[in-house]
């Protein structure tokens, strides 16, 4: 499944150039561009992602999975669906970027309650900032974050930063794996 997802990401979500051509949120230029949404929102990508994330969290004791909207949302939903298919259901949740200012004011939406063990996920980690924000907001709502799982680690310090907040943090796919596929597998670039 992982190799198939790497190929799918290379076809739909990854760009690579020899010279820095892609502007990042930070403003700096990069040789790599990763936008997982075309992959995580397609049927096959959703299937592969959900199963791989579920396998990576299966032994965590978590009852729910989610992260900062919008990057984590399709991954959380796919993981919850895959978990039900495997007979070990975990719920999905979403963490808002801005706090709701009406009704019940909260950061987290979903079927989760304070004290529950959860896994925080994200589609891509560069510096880890959005994942760390999700971890902090989940904890502010009383959730116990037991693991962080990133779909694609850009290998630019993000995982190390995330581990300062959750020691049990892992990535499913690395930038190096995407570059290797991009350069060596016919038909993906």
UniProtKB/TrEMBL annotation:
Per the entry, what this protein does is: Catalyzes the transfer of a ribosyl phosphate group from 5-phosphoribose 1-diphosphate to orotate, leading to the formation of orotidine monophosphate (OMP).
Instruction: Please list the GO terms describing molecular function.
Output: magnesium ion binding; orotate phosphoribosyltransferase activity
Q: What is the lineage of its organism?
A: Bacteria, Pseudomonadati, Thermodesulfobacteriota, Desulfobacteria, Desulfobacterales
InterPro entries, alphabetized: OPRT, Or_phspho_trans_dom, PRTase-like, PRTase_dom
NCBIfam families membership: pyrE
Q: Which pathway features in its UniProt record?
A: Pyrimidine metabolism; UMP biosynthesis via de novo pathway; UMP from orotate: step 1/2
Native organism is: Desulfosarcina ovata subsp. ovata
Using the record, list the residue span of the signal peptide; answer none if the entry has no such feature. none
Boundaries of each Phosphoribosyltransferase domain copy?
Answer: 110-168
Q: Does the keyword Cell membrane apply?
A: no
The protein's assembly and partners: Homodimer.
Per its UniProt record, the required cofactor names are: Mg(2+)
Q: Which UniProt keywords apply?
A: Glycosyltransferase, Magnesium, Pyrimidine biosynthesis, Transferase
| Family according to the record | Belongs to the purine/pyrimidine phosphoribosyltransferase family. PyrE subfamily.
Q: Name one Pfam family in it.
A: Pribosyltran
Could you identify this protein by its name? Orotate phosphoribosyltransferase
Q: What class of enzyme is it?
A: transferase
EC assignment: 2.4.2.10
List positions binding orotate. 126, 154
What this protein catalyses is: orotidine 5'-phosphate + diphosphate = orotate + 5-phospho-alpha-D-ribose 1-diphosphate
Q: Which GO terms describe its biological process?
A: 'de novo' UMP biosynthetic process; pyrimidine nucleobase biosynthetic process
The UniProt record gives the binding positions of 5-phospho-alpha-D-ribose 1-diphosphate as 96-97, 100, 102, 122-130
Q: Does the keyword Cell inner membrane apply?
A: no
């Amino acid at each position: 499944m992982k190799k198939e997802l790497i190929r799918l990401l290379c076809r739909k979500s990854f760009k690579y150039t020899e010279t820095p051509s892609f502007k990042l949120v930070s403003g700096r230029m990069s040789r790599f561009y990763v936008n997982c949404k075309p992959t995580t929102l397609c049927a096959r990508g959703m299937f592969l992602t959900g199963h791989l994330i579920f396998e990576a969290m299966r032994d965590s004791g978590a009852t729910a999975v989610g992260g900062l909207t919008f990057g984590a949302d399709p991954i959380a939903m796919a993981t919850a669906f895959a978990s039900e298919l495997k007979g070990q259901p975990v719920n999905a949740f979403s963490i808002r970027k801005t706090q709701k200012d009406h009704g019940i004011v909260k950061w987290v939406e979903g079927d989760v309650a304070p004290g529950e063990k959860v896994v925080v996920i994200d589609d891509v980690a560069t510096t880890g900032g959005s994942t760390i924000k999700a971890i902090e907001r989940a904890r502010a709502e009383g959730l116990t974050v037991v693991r962080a799982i990133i779909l694609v680690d850009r290998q630019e310090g993000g995982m190390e930063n995330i581990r300062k907040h959750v020691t049990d943090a892992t990535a499913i796919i690395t930038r190096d794996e995407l570059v290797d596929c991009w350069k060596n597998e016919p038909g993906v670039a």
